[in-house]
Design brief:
Distance between the termini: 49 Å
Largest sheet: 5 strands, mixed
GO molecular function: DNA binding
InterPro entries: HTH_CenpB_DNA-bd_dom
Structural class: alpha+beta
Shape: flat
Number of helices: 3
Keywords: DNA-binding
Number of strands: 5
Helix content: 25-40%
Length: 161
């Protein structure tokens, strides 16, 4: 079923095992309990996973798109200036560590973490490198700043409304 990208729920594995047990195991009373299922999944390296929201393309469609994109890049490569071709990545930087995990006594009902109210405050950092390999200064995007882009030391700072 998974080879066809279909959903395989735990109860389906248990039902299939109960159906196959009389012929394969010569066991009419096989129950395929939750404990058996947990050991079966562990033994075969299976785990309960959450579906991702990635678009799934067929192999033929994916190959066609890759070939088309490479042809496009090849045609543009002649006219592209490597020093003005930029690779960029942006990420949020939080003022407070957003992780909510901590070590506490086992069995504690409530685990409270002190917050300084900065947990949701963030800036956006844009890191850029040219196709020649030269790193450009980082760009910091701050919400609510009422000024134009400025250079501050080794950084550029930009407002965001």
């Amino acid at each position: 079923m998974r080879a066809k990208k279909e959903k395989v729920p735990r109860h389906w594995i248990q039902a299939s095992a109960r159906e196959l047990a009389p012929a394969e195991l010569d066991d009419e009373d096989f129950s395929a309990s939750d404990k058996w299922l947990a050991h079966f999944m562990d033994r075969y390296g299976l785990s309960l996973r959450r579906a991702t929201n990635l678009t799934v393309l067929s192999d033929d469609e994916l190959t066609a798109r890759v070939v088309q994109f490479l042809a496009y890049l090849s045609s543009k490569r002649i006219v592209l200036n490597r020093s003005t071709t930029l690779l960029m990545d942006e990420t949020a930087v939080f003022f407070e560590d957003p992780r909510r995990d901590t070590v506490d006594i086992t069995g504690t009902r409530h685990v409270v973490l002190h917050s300084k109210a900065f947990a949701s405050m963030q800036i956006t950092v844009v890191l850029t490198v040219s196709a020649t390999g030269k790193n450009l200064p980082p760009l910091l995007i701050c919400k609510g700043v009422k000024q134009s882009i400025q250079k501050r030391g080794a950084f550029y700072v930009a407002p965001q409304e």
